[in-house]
Amino acid sequence: MGKSLASFEKQIRKSKLTAIVSKIVIYTVLCIWAFTTVYTLFWVVNNSFKDKNDILTDSFSLAVKPLLNNYETAFNKMNIGRAYFNSFIISGSTVILVMIFSGLAAYAMTRYTFRLKNVLYLMFAGSLLFPAFSTIVPIFRMVLKLNIVSNPLGVIIPQTASNLSFAIIVLMGFMSNLPLELEEAAFMEGCSVFDIFFRIILPISKSAFATVAIFTFLWSYNDLFMQMVILRKRETYPICTLLNEISSQFGTDFGLMAASVTIVVLPVLLVYLFLQKNIVKGLTAGAIKG
């Protein structure tokens, strides 16, 4: 009896030691990974406050005397303020349209039974497999026929269509787990379908809609390929397209490049920092039935 107890305690100590060692290894790898990621961002921001000659001489030293010349050049000569405005118009409009259409479509897919419903769902899922490069030719022909080349609508409409499938699938996963009793009670009180959707379903599904809005905004904001093909006039350039132009025209001015990258990355970084809980919560909310 004593030997078995001693053996059991030895196994417990061994398992605890293994768990501690594995945690140390995991956290060490994660810390190294986090450091490389954070330091890269810090390096870019730090060099954005230096003169280009100082960057060529020593790019790893701290900017003891920060200079704002690069940011002044970016906003005054490159008109980054206008590009920011264009980006938020395009991305904001895309987010609003995607949330409206995907919300209504997901509600119809989860609450109504109709012919070819499963086929329609497979089409939504299958459309996610097609890369943007494979659809750019028909999209550009459509935009050209509608005469909206170099118009924000020429980007907003294709981006809305390309983000709908993902948004519908995410919202369907969430709405399918919502109790029907709430809707039945509202229907008995005389609420119409749109009243039920906007007064009951929409408030309950805020986390899922937040996830859809965040991912749609980020994908639209970073969609350089679509913007370069559709938008041909410089005054219509969003921030990512303007950054691409800066990199080609001022590739040797590393200070201006660093400032421009900082300006482009800042909104994305803020979205992740303040809304990361909504991202995880919205993606996992429909994964567990209960």
Describe this structure in words.
This protein has 290 residues and is mainly α. It folds into 2 domains: 2-47; 70-285, MetI-like fold (Orthogonal Bundle), CATH 1.10.3720.10. It contains 13 helices and no strands. Helix 3 (69-76) packs across helix 13, helix 4 (80-111) packs across helix 10 and helix 8 packs antiparallel against helix 9. The longest helix is centred in the N-terminal third of the chain and has 46 residues, at 2-47.
Q: Low-confidence parts, pLDDT < 50 over ≥5 residues?
A: none
The count of DSSP E runs of length 2 or more, i.e. the number of strands, is 0
Q: What is the CATH architecture term of the largest domain?
A: Orthogonal Bundle
Name given to the CATH homologous superfamily of the largest domain = MetI-like
- List SSEs in N-to-C order: HHHHHHHHHHHHH
Task: Please estimate the helix content.
Answer: over 70%
Q: Which structural class fits the helix and strand makeup?
A: mainly alpha
Taking the alpha carbons of the first and last residues, their distance comes to 45 Å
The number of domains is 2
Strand percent estimate: under 5%
The CATH class of the largest domain, by name, is Mainly Alpha
CATH topology of the largest domain: MetI-like fold
Sheet with the most strands?
none
Instruction: Average the pLDDT over all residues and give the rounded result.
Output: 84
Could you tell me the radius of gyration in angstroms?
26 Å
What gross morphology would you assign? Answer: flat
